[in-house]
Inverse folding.
C-alpha cells in the first residue's frame, strides 16, 4: 500500500501542480471563460489513464502463463525507464516548469478553445499514463489486490488536497525537498520493479538462472511476517532472490542514486571580452 501511495502522491502532485499553474494563469489573465476547456482536457487525460490501466490488466489476464510473465516483465522494464526519466526530468525542469506552461497556454489561447483542451490534455496525460504503467508494474505479485488500489487512491487524493492548498496559498511546502526525497524513494521502488521484471523474464524462460539463489534469508526475513510483507510490498525485497535479480537490483540502484543525489556544479560564467 505504501509503494502505491507514494506513486499516487508523487505523480498526482506533479499533475496537480500543472493544473494549478494553468488555472492561475487563466484567472490572472481574466480568461475564466477558458476554465471549462482546461477541465475538459484534464478529464479526458484522466479517462485515458484509467482506460490504459484497464487495458494493461485486461491484456495480462488474457495471456497464458508464459505470455503473462513476459508481458509483466516488459511492462516492468518500461515502468523503470519512464519513472527514472521522470525523476531526473522533474529535478532539471522544475524551476522553469511554470514559465513554460504559461507560455504554452498563452499560445493555445490565441489558437482557440480546442487548442486549450489539447494543451491541458497533453500536460496531464503524460503523468496519468506514467502513473497507470508504474502502478501496474508495482503491484505484480501483490497478495492483497485491494491494498494497492486503496494506496494509490489515497495518494492521489492527498496530492489533490496539497495542490489545492498550494494554489490557494493555504499550504506551503518546500517542493525541492519534497521531490528529492520522493525521488529517492521512487528509485528504490523502481529497483524493486526491475528486480521483479528480471524474475518474470526468468519465469518466462527468456533469462536463465531462476533456481540460482544469491542467498537465503528466509529465517531472518520470513515471507509471512509483517516486516517481510512490508519490504516485499514496498521494495520487492524477497528472502530467496536469484543471482540475476540481485545483480540487476544493485546495478540499477547504486549508480541511479549516485547520479540523482550528486550536487550539480553550475557552469562558470564566461568572462566579458
Amino acid at each position: 500500500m505504501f509503494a502505491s501511495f507514494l506513486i499516487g502522491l508523487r505523480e498526482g502532485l506533479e499533475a496537480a501542480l500543472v493544473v494549478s499553474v494553468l488555472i492561475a494563469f487563466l484567472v490572472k489573465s481574466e480568461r475564466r471563460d477558458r476554465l471549462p476547456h482546461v477541465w475538459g482536457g484534464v478529464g479526458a487525460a484522466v479517462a485515458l489513464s484509467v482506460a490504459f490501466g484497464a487495458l494493461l490488466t485486461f491484456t495480462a489476464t488474457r495471456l497464458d502463463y508464459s505470455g503473462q510473465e513476459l508481458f509483466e516483465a516488459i511492462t516492468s522494464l518500461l515502468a523503470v525507464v519512464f519513472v527514472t526519466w521522470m525523476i531526473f526530468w522533474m529535478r532539471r525542469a522544475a524551476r522553469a516548469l511554470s514559465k513554460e506552461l504559461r507560455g504554452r497556454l498563452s499560445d493555445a489561447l490565441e489558437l482557440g478553445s480546442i487548442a486549450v483542451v489539447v494543451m491541458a490534455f497533453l500536460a496531464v496525460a503524460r503523468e496519468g499514463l506514467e502513473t497507470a504503467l508504474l502502478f501496474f508494474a508495482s503491484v505484480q505479485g501483490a497478495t492483497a489486490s485491494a491494498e494497492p488500489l486503496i494506496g494509490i487512491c489515497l495518494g492521489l487524493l492527498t496530492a489533490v488536497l496539497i495542490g489545492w492548498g498550494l494554489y490557494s496559498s493555504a499550504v506551503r511546502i518546500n517542493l525541492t525537498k519534497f521531490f528529492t526525497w520522493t525521488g529517492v524513494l521512487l528509485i528504490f521502488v523502481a529497483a524493486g520493479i526491475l528486480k521483479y521484471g528480471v524474475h518474470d523474464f526468468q519465469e518466462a524462460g527468456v533469462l536463465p538462472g531462476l533456481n540460482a539463489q544469491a542467498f537465503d534469508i528466509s529465517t531472518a526475513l520470513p515471507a509471512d511476517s509483517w516486516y517481510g510483507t512490508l519490504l516485499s510490498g514496498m521494495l520487492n525485497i524477497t528472502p530467496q532472490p536469484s543471482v540475476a535479480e540481485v545483480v540487476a537490483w544493485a546495478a540499477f540502484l547504486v549508480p541511479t542514486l549516485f547520479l540523482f543525489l550528486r550536487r550539480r556544479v553550475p557552469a562558470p560564467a564566461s568572462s566579458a571580452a
